[in-house]
Amino acid sequence: MTMILKADSNNVINGVPVNEYMLTNHNPNNIEMPSASMEGKVIGITIHNTDWITTIEGTTPAEQYTRATVNGNMKDVRVHYYCDDTCAWQNLPLTLSGWHAADGDGSGNRRTIAIECIMSSAYNDTDKKSEDNCARLAAALLKMYNLSIDNLYTHTYWLNVRDGKRGSVDELNVMYNSYKMCPAYILPHWNEFKAKVQLYMGETAPAPKPKTAAKKVLYRVRKSWKDAKSQVGAFEVLENALKACPVGYTVYDNAGVPISTKAVELQRGATITLINAPLYASSDADQPSNTVNGTYYLYDGVNFNGRVRITNSPDKCGNTPVGYYVTGYVSIENIT
């Protein structure tokens, strides 16, 4: 028999019923929990999408996702709110960081409040109601922390920051990232969602700019933006530019903003160069044990949530026992 969770308290925030069920008070399965404080450090709200699920009678998807977290079925995802078409469930106190932005100790995890908006690709009336509740909740939280609409972030924003991409908040919020585009169902109309949040904050959204003829975009593939001679092509279609991008090259837009950098192919024995790269003892260690420099080799090329195993000799690649031959784990973003 399924035991539906009972909220510790209920309130209404900006028209959204919120059920508080803090994992800090309810952890019967001893799931891992974040411990970093966000007291006095909150800089924004991060919006995510997670898929719609069918629930049993008497509950909602937000409750079921909360229950799945308690049961350990959400792996290491920890967010502050799950939001559906009828309500939101709060899982973490707002003074505690979450695990949601895939940026490790970066500001996404450590300094923003995470809202998972439960939707589907159908974008039907139920999905639109979930999105509306998410916008209302985000607006209330921004006002609570005296933040502006420019402190509203997508999950993809933090991935782009993690990967060293540059641009304005608006640009990085929607800029392509090969790891993940999230919130997947809101991103296609992010500007409209942002305007709705601003409306619910009680602010007037800026008047739309007059329409002008669309400027032709060319995606250029170069080693660096300044090195025009290294350009291998200019493409009208982003997908074609990404396919043509060699290892070590970057795809840039018209303004020279990097969109994607082709890293070394993750295959066993690949030679990599590391410069002051943090070295971790495991794929999920929070703190590095050392830093490494020089030439190393991919032990097996397996991607462990953004980290790979390295070794100091090509002869050691793939050998067992793993602990004897592997030097440690490094983040893919540190590979050059």
Give a short synopsis of this structure:
This protein is 21% helix and 23% strand.
Task: Provide an overview of this structure.
This protein is α/β, with parallel strands linked by helices and 336 residues long. It folds into three domains: 9-200, Lysozyme-like (3-Layer(aba) Sandwich), CATH 3.40.80.10; 219-261, no CATH class; 271-334. The chain has helices at residues 61-70, 107-111, 125-144, 155-162, 169-174, 190-200, 238-244, 322-325; strands at 9-13, 16-20, 44-51, 81-83, 88-90, 112-119, 152-154, 219-222, 233-235, 250-252, 258-261, 271-279, 290-298, 307-311, 328-331. The strands form three sheets. A seven-stranded mixed beta sheet has the order 1-2-5-4-6-3-7. A four-stranded antiparallel beta sheet has the order 9-8-10-11, covered by helices on one side. 34% of the residues are buried. The model is unreliable at 204-214 (pLDDT under 50).
Average pLDDT metric: 89
Spans with pLDDT under 50 lasting ≥5 residues? Answer: 204-214
Strand order of the largest sheet: 1-2-5-4-6-3-7
Distance between the termini: 52 Å
At the first level of CATH, what is the class of the largest domain? Answer: Alpha Beta
